[in-house]
Design goal:
2 domains, three-stranded parallel beta sheet, 171 residues, alpha/beta, 7 strands, elongated
Amino acid sequence: MDIIKIKGALYTQKKSSKDAVFPFLNKRIILQDEMPVFQFIDNSGVDGNSIHKIKVAKEIVFGFDTFLKHKSTGRILFKPRKLSELVNYIDEPELPNYRFVLDTEDKEILSEIIQQMLYLDIEIEVMLGDEESERRKMEVFSENYGDLKAALDKAQSRISCIHGGEIREEK
């Protein structure tokens, strides 16, 4: 996925900042400075009819391990160190197959990353490492539920035959 990295202050301090931002409409922008996203948008001068076309987020440097994984296999595809690296690596048609896992317990950073992805209009599953482990267990159970239920029904049927047609309940 193509991104443009810019310093927001350079593009919004010009006399006609709308003209400075116009080439970036419908593109994904990662701000490389401390300018807040809302300030970049406010200063851009883009009118209300076009504001939805600005897809801008701030750069986040991850201070922990992160993994872009394939949802169904759990295979690690990429280990980004920054938000811009992740966005640049992503193949948009493959988005439904991705899961972005953070090796941290910090829910604030999780929330911040999800927020930046929303700003960029990128629908990707983002979760903490513990959540991913629990989700994998549920997925494996769900995938095997039919087989487990059939095995349980078969076992109950055999027990029923052994006890002459009635299953005794233990108290």
